[in-house]
Specification:
heterodimer, A: alpha+beta, Uridine Diphospho-n-acetylenolpyruvylglucosamine Reductase, domain 3, Alpha-Beta Plaits, five-stranded antiparallel beta sheet, 36% helix, 20% strand, globular, B: Uridine Diphospho-n-acetylenolpyruvylglucosamine Reductase, domain 3, 24% helix, binds flavin-adenine dinucleotide
Chain lengths: 472, 289
C-alpha cells in the first residue's frame, strides 16, 4: 500500500494530500530562502490521530514535521527530510472555558486571536500578541515561544501556558503541567515551549487568561534622533515604569508610511516611539506622567496622547502598517530578529546603520524597543547581481554584534534552519552538546522534525544545498 | 565533609574527584544522607549588574537578602513575594534548585521566569553556558527551565543571570480584587470540610496567605487557583505525610525527593537524569525514579 493509503486509514481519505501542488504549498513557511517538499500532508482531527500518525511514521522510518499556519520565519515547519507534514489545520476546537479560574483549553491549531475573541465577553484575553495573531496558531506560538508588542509587560508565551498534551516523537502521549503555574518537579513543559516543534507535537493546551486592562493610555512621541528615542526607552524603564508596550519606528519606516498611506509626522522626526501603559486607572496615570516627562526631557518634537479608542487605533497604525508600507520602498524585504540588553540600543542602532551602509544596503527599523528586540528590515531588489550575498552578510554581522553586546541571535522568530550556524556565535560545542542532550530527553531519534535548531546534526548538512536550491 | 570551591577550575576538579555530592539544598530540605557537601559559601560575588537593563549576574552563593540589598541600592528588586518560610538566608543556588513559591508568583512570575541565563557545572566537570542576558530569547533549548526546581539533580548553578524589577513597581494584575481574609477563610474551611475540596466561586479570589489553625498553611497566588504547600518545619512536616485535602490542580511542595505527578512522566524524568547527569553524581536520591 502507498503512504497515502496508509495515512488515510488513520485520518480518513479526505484528510491526506499528496498532489504536486499540495507538496509545493507545504514545502516551507514564511522564511523564503529554503524549501523542501514533503511526500504527504496529513490533517488529523485529534490527539489520538496524531499519535497514530507518529507511531506509523516511527514504524516505517518516515520523518514527520508538525505545522500550524506556516507563518514561521525561520523554516521550522519545513519538512527538511521530506516525509509527512502533520498539519493542525483541523484541530481548532475550544474545549473548555473556565472563567472563574481564568483558563481556556483548546486544540493546538486554533488561531491565536480566536482565543482572545472567545473570552472578550468575560473581560479576559490571551496576552501573547504576535503580529501574525489572526492566523498563527496556538501550537505554533508555543513552539516558537512567540512574543508581541505587549510582551514587555505580560511576558512571552511560556508565561501563559499552564499545561499541554504532547505526542512524543515515539508516539506516546503525555500531559505536561498541572493547569496552574508553579509547583514542584521538573519543568518539562517549559522546555517544550520554544523548542520549535522538535520535542513532539502539541495537540491541546490550557492557556492562562489575563484580565483586559481597566485603563489604557497610548502615546506616540516623535524624536529628532534615534538615539534620543532609545535613550527615552531606557529612561522610562530606569524611572521604574514598565509600560505594556514600547515600540520604535525609525526614519525608514516613516518614509514608507508617508509614501504608502500619506501619514504625516513632524518634518525633522527621525524616530517615533509608541508607548502604551495599562492597568488600574491610578497607576496608569502615574506611569503616564513619567512617560510624558521622559519624552519631553529627551527632546521629543511632538507628544500625541490618544484621547479615545479611535485615536488609540490611529496611533497604532504606524506600528501595525509599518512593514506593509515597506513594500513601497523595494520589492524584497528581509526582517532580522536579534535581541540585546536595552541599554545598548543607542549604540546598536548606530552599528546597524553602519553595517548596512558598509554593505551598500538600505535598512529600516521597526521593533520592540522595550524588550531590546530589534527587527532591522533590509529592503532591496533581488534582481541586482550579488545583492543577496550582501544582505546575508550584513544580517550575520548585525546578529554577531547582538551577541557581542550580551544578547541573542533570536528574540522571537526562532532558529529553525535559518540560524543553525549562527547558534555557534552564542554557544560553545560543550554548551550545544548539553542542549542536544536536553532535546534527546524528548526526541532521541531522528524522525521528529529533523535538522532544526542544532547545527551539525547527522545526515542534515548535505541537504542544505538542496533546500537552498529548491527555493530559487 | 564540605568543600567550598572559589574558582571555576576548583568546581570542576571537585566534581570530578567525587562519586556523589550534595549541593544547593537548604539544610531543612535535606534528606537523611551523609553525602559530601559541595558548598557555594565562597562563591557569592556580583559578576555584572546593569540596573538600566533590570538584569544582574551573580555567583550562585549569594543569599537572597544580600542580593536584594545590592539591588535596592539602585532602586531595583527581585519581585519575590511573601513566603511562609524565610528565604532571606537561602543562596541563589538553593532558591533555584527548590523553586520555592511565593505570594506574587501569579502576577510577577517565579524563579523560572527570572532566570535568563546561567553558567552550569555538569556532573562530568564541564562548565557550560545557557541562555543569555537578553530578556527575550528563542535561541536553542531552554535548559534553564529544566534546571530550576530540579533539586540540583541535573547540574550545579554557578552563576545566575536574573531579570529583576524596579523597586516600587506594582504588579501586572493589579486590577484583580483582593479577597478579604475572613470570607476567604470561610470558603476554604468549607472546602476543607467538604469532600469536594476547595471551590472558588464567583469573583476570582486573589488569595494571599491563609493559615488554618489545624490544617495546612495555604498559600495561593493564582486568581482563583489555589496553590498549597507546607512550611518545612518538623511538626508540619510530619503532617504532610498524611494526605492533604486536595483540589484540582493543586500541589504540595515537600522537602526530600521529587516524584513525578504521574507514572507516564517517569520515562522522561529518567531520561533527563541520564542525559544531563549520566554519572549520577549530583544529589543522588533527590529524584525518585
Ligand atoms: C507577518 C508576520 C508577523 C509576525 N509577527 C510575529 C511577532 O510579532 N512575534 C512573533 O513571535 N512571531 C511573529 N511572526 C512569526 C510567526 O508568526 C510565529 O513564530 C508563530 O508563532 C508561528 O505560528 P504558526 O502557527 O504559523 O506556526 P508554523 O509556522 O506552522 O510552525 C512554526 C514552528 O512550530 C512548529 N509547530 C507548529 N505547530 C506545532 C504543534 N502543534 N506542536 C509542535 N510544534 C508545532 C513547527 O514545526 C515549526 O517549527 C510573524 C510572522 C509573520 C509572517
Amino acid at each position: 500500500m502507498s503512504l497515502r493509503e496508509d495515512l488515510a486509514r488513520i485520518v480518513g481519505a479526505d484528510a491526506v494530500r499528496d498532489s504536486e501542488a499540495a507538496r509545493q504549498v507545504y514545502d516551507g513557511d514564511a522564511y523564503p530562502i529554503e524549501r523542501s517538499k514533503p511526500l504527504c500532508i496529513a490533517f488529523p482531527k485529534n490527539t489520538d490521530q496524531v499519535a497514530q500518525l507518529v507511531r506509523y511514521c516511527v514504524a516505517h522510518d518516515v520523518p514527520f514535521t508538525p505545522r500550524g499556519a506556516g507563518t514561521g520565519l525561520s523554516g521550522g515547519a519545513m519538512p527538511a527530510l521530506g516525509g509527512v507534514v502533520v498539519s493542525t489545520k483541523r484541530m481548532t476546537a475550544i474545549l473548555e472555558i473556565d472563567v472563574a479560574n481564568r483558563r481556556l483549553r483548546a486544540q493546538s491549531g486554533i488561531a491565536n486571536k480566536r482565543i482572545s475573541d472567545a473570552v472578550a465577553q468575560f473581560g479576559l484575553h490571551f496576552a501573547p500578541d504576535p503580529s501574525s495573531q489572526s492566523v498563527s496558531t496556538l501550537g505554533g506560538n508555543i513552539a516558537e515561544n512567540a512574543g508581541g508588542p505587549h510582551t514587555l509587560k505580560y511576558g512571552v508565551t511560556v508565561r501563559h501556558i499552564l499545561s499541554a498534551t504532547l505526542v512524543l516523537p515515539d508516539g506516546d502521549v503525555v500531559e505536561l503541567g498541572r493547569g496552574v503555574p508553579g509547583g514542584p518537579g521538573l519543568d518539562l513543559l517549559g522546555v517544550v515551549v520554544g523548542s520549535e516543534g522538535t520535542t513532539g507535537i502539541v495537540t491541546e493546551a490550557t492557556v492562562r487568561l489575563t484580565p483586559l486592562p481597566a485603563a489604557v493610555r497610548t502615546t506616540l512621541a516623535a524624536f529628532p534622533s534615534v538615539r534620543a528615542a532609545t535613550e527615552c526607552v531606557a529612561g522610562i524603564i530606569s524611572a521604574g515604569v514598565i509600560p505594556a508596550a514600547m515600540e520604535l519606528m525609525d526614519r525608514g519606516i516613516l518614509g514608507a508610511l508617508r509614501a504608502a498611506f500619506g501619514l504625516t509626522y513632524p518634518e525633522d522626526a527621525a524616530a517615533l516611539l509608541l508607548i502604551e501603559c495599562d492597568g488600574l486607572p491610578e497607576s496608569v496615570e502615574r506611569e503616564q506622567a513619567v512617560v510624558e516627562a521622559e519624552c519631553r526631557e529627551r527632546g521629543a518634537l511632538e507628544v500625541r496622547v490618544a484621547q479615545s479608542e479611535a485615536e488609540r487605533q490611529s496611533l497604532w497604525v504606524a506600528r501595525k502598517k509599518g512593514i506593509g508600507a515597506m513594500g513601497r520602498l523595494a520589492p524584497t524585504i528581509v526582517t532580522h530578529d536579534g535581541v540585546i540588553p536595552r541599554s545598548q540600543l543607542p549604540q546598536m542602532l548606530e552599528d546597524v546603520a553602519e553595517i548596512a551602509a558598509a554593505h551598500g544596503l538600505s535598512v529600516a527599523n521597526l521593533f520592540h524597543a522595550g524588550d531590546g528586540n530589534l527587527h532591522p528590515c533590509i529592503y532591496f531588489d533581488e534582481r541586482e547581481p550579488g545583492i543577496v550575498e550582501r544582505v546575508i552578510s550584513a544580517g550575520e554581522q548585525i546578529l554577531r554584534k547582538c551577541v557581542e553586546l550580551g544578547g541573542s541571535v533570536s528574540g522571537e522568530h526562532g532558529i529553525g534552519v535559518e540560524k543553525m550556524d549562527l547558534l555557534t556565535l552564542m554557544f560553545s560545542p560543550d554548551d550545544l552538546e548539553v542542549q542536544a542532550r536536553t532535546k534527546a530527553i524528548f526526541n532521541p531519534g531522528s524522525l521528529g522534525n529533523p535538522c532544526k535548531i542544532l547545527p551539525n546534526q547527522k545526515g542534515c548538512h548535505e541537504h542544505r544545498m538542496r533546500w537552498r536550491g529548491a527555493a530559487t | 565533609m564540605q568543600h567550598s570551591p572559589t574558582t571555576l577550575a576548583e568546581w570542576s576538579e571537585a566534581i570530578l574527584a567525587a562519586q556523589a555530592v550534595r549541593h544547593s539544598i537548604p539544610p531543612e530540605w535535606r534528606m537523611d544522607d551523609d553525602l559530601p557537601e559541595l558548598s557555594h559559601a565562597r562563591y557569592a560575588d556580583v559578576v555584572e549588574f546593569s540596573p538600566e537593563d533590570l538584569v544582574i549576574t551573580v555567583q550562585a552563593g549569594m543569599t537572597l537578602d544580600a542580593l536584594q540589598e545590592l539591588l535596592v541600592a539602585d532602586q531595583r528588586r527581585l519581585p519575590v513575594g511573601e513566603s511562609p518560610m524565610p528565604l532571606g538566608d537561602w543562596t541563589l543556588a538553593e532558591l533555584l534548585s527548590i523553586n520555592p513559591p511565593h505570594t506574587d508568583e501569579f502576577e510577577r512570575g517565579g524563579w523560572r521566569d527570572w532566570l535568563l541565563g546561567a553558567k552550569l557545572l555538569m556532573g562530568d566537570g564541564r562548565i557550560i553556558k545557557i541562555g543569555s542576558r537578553a530578556v527575550k530569547n528563542v535561541a536553542g533549548y531552554d535548559v534553564q527551565k529544566l534546571i530550576v526546581g530540579s533539586r540540583g539533580t541535573l547540574a550545579v548553578v554557578l552563576e545566575a543571570t536574573l531579570l529583576v524589577g524596579p523597586a516600587g513597581h506594582a504588579g501586572t494584575n493589579e486590577a484583580v480584587p483582593w479577597g478579604t481574609r475572613s470570607s476567604l477563610l470561610g470558603q476554604i474551611q468549607r472546602g476543607h470540610e467538604s469532600s469536594r475540596g476547595y471551590e472558588m466561586e464567583g469573583d476570582p479570589w486573589h488569595i494571599q496567605r491563609v493559615s488554618l489553625t489545624d490544617g495546612p498553611l495555604l498559600q495561593a497566588a493564582a486568581d482563583g487557583v489555589p496553590h498549597a504547600f507546607h512550611p518545612p518545619t518538623a511538626t508540619l512536616w510530619a503532617r504532610t505525610r498524611e494526605p492533604l485535602p486536595r483540589f484540582e490542580g493543586d500541589w504540595v511542595m515537600r522537602p526530600g525527593a521529587l516524584v513525578p505527578d504521574s507514572p507516564a512522566l517517569l520515562p522522561l524524568w529518567r531520561r533527563a537524569k541520564e542525559q544531563l547527569d549520566p554519572r549520577g553524581v549530583l544529589n543522588p536520591g533527590y529524584l525518585r525514579l
